[in-house]
């Protein structure tokens, strides 16, 4: 009975966070060293697996809609998997950043010189501005999301896009609301896998706000 009560409480709390009644709290808190260990263990190899392709498919569809070659920033790029999935996308330059030195080392080894990779949480202004910033399964690890979103916005060119993929989890609606407070939503779709494990991702395209509107 107490177990049932605990589960009911957790469910109520999760629903409260999901629908924005309770504040969004990061579910997973990992340091760069934790990520280094995860990457070194090989446990994260599944990011490149067939069952993760759905979210990449939508990101790819959005990216191919760009008509001019883009400078693309991949925030939380991990080992740079996105770079391998850009066929047909007009790309001028790919830049990946990730706080995990292990992931960046693997990205540099595996992806050669097709892009550049840097150990960082957020873009350094020295990297210049970008036409598209991708946050592929990373926003829910960021401690101060509004501050990070403002920094990402500052790194976007006028007419630029922020593309996000967010695993469905308690609080994701509040998280999307935080992004929509900083960027203009263009489109958003739910990619829901119907075979176990039944994961779902919300993949969204946001536009940089016109400077006059900020
Ligand atoms: C779930 S993995 C996604 C990796 C890659 N984008 C993909 O889809 O395969 C999350 C990545 O975000 C990075 N990360 C974690 N916290 C971050 C933060 N605060 N800022 C930027 N990246 C972060 C991790 O090191 C990790 O590589």
From TrEMBL:
Care to name a GO molecular-function term for this sequence? methyltransferase activity
Q: What is this protein called?
A: Class I SAM-dependent methyltransferase
Q: Which Pfam families match?
A: Methyltransf_23
Key words of the record:
Methyltransferase, S-adenosyl-L-methionine, Transferase
* Top-level division of the source organism's lineage: Bacteria
Q: Which Gene3D superfamilies match?
A: Vaccinia Virus protein VP39
* Any single GO BP term: methylation
Q: Which CDD domains match?
A: AdoMet_MTases
